[in-house]
Amino acid sequence: PVDVLYRRFDDALLGAYPTGAGVPLDLALTEAVRARRLGLANVPGNAVADDAAGYAWVPAMIRFYLGEEPLLASARTWVLADPAAWAEVADRLHELEVESVAGYGGRRVVHGPSCPAAGLAALRAEIAAAPHRFVAREPLAPSTAPALAGGCLHPRPVGLRVFSVAGRTTATLPLALTRVGGDGLLGKDTWLLR
């Protein structure tokens, strides 16, 4: 049985996928959530708060909700809907990563240092036309973990996502998602020990 689903595709695509019973996925999910048979970690309509734009406010949320300073530094992130943020980074796109706010799962990320000049010019024009659709951030070197490929261990970039839920108390769930880069995006077994 599935108790909670973490959705990783755009709201507009929900109705395009039929379930085994032939019911569109958006209707099946809505029915299951309303009947309290399923929880959604990220309900439809929260695209602006999925990962890209949310990074910019994590330190402020920690200060506001917990009343303390963040223990780990975050990559500096600019929400380009803010005219001052866009003005600050407009001439630095070649140094930064730019991501679409609604790009679930890291879709539509432009790595400025490896993007050709023509691509950066096109990106600059696209942002100028609709800055609310983008964030920019300082690039980070990815963490790596050993992964078996071709019979040998190789370092591969990994991302670890831990899930917490808030209610009367806040708890970290005994599960995590580890994504491994390389030839395609893969998952890796993850254990959380308490």
Description:
- The protein has 3 domains: 4-44, no CATH class; 54-137, Dna Ligase, domain 1, CATH 3.30.1490; 143-187, no CATH class.
- Strand 1, helix 1 (25-34) and strand 2 form a beta-alpha-beta unit.
- It is 22% helix and 27% strand.
- The protein is built from 4 helices and 10 strands, in the order E-H-E-H-E-H-E-E-H-E-E-E-E-E.
- It has a 4-stranded antiparallel beta sheet, covered by helices on one side.
- It is globular.
- The protein is α+β, with helices and mostly antiparallel strands.
SSE blueprint:
Layout: E1 4-5, H1 25-34, E2 39-40, H2 54-66, E3 77-79, H3 83-89, E4 97-100, E5 109-111, H4 117-129, E6 134-137, E7 143-149, E8 152-166, E9 170-180, E10 186-187
Parallel strand pairs: 1-2
Antiparallel strand pairs: 3-6, 4-5, 4-6, 7-8, 8-9, 9-10
Beta-sheet strand percentage?
25-35%
The CATH topology assignment of the largest domain is Dna Ligase, domain 1
N/C terminus separation: 24 Å
H-E string: EHEHEHEEHEEEEE
What is the SS-derived class? alpha+beta
Mean pLDDT: 82
Specify the number of helices.
Answer: 4
Instruction: Choose one word for the global shape.
Output: globular
- Rg estimate, integer Å: 19 Å
Could you give a short account of the major beta sheet? 4 strands, antiparallel
What's the number of domains? Answer: 3
CATH architecture of the largest domain, by name, is: 2-Layer Sandwich
Instruction: Pick out the low-confidence regions.
Output: none
CATH class of the largest domain: Alpha Beta
Q: Which percent range fits the helix content?
A: 10-25%
Strand order of the largest sheet: 3-6-4-5
| Assembly status | single chain
- The tally of strands reads 10
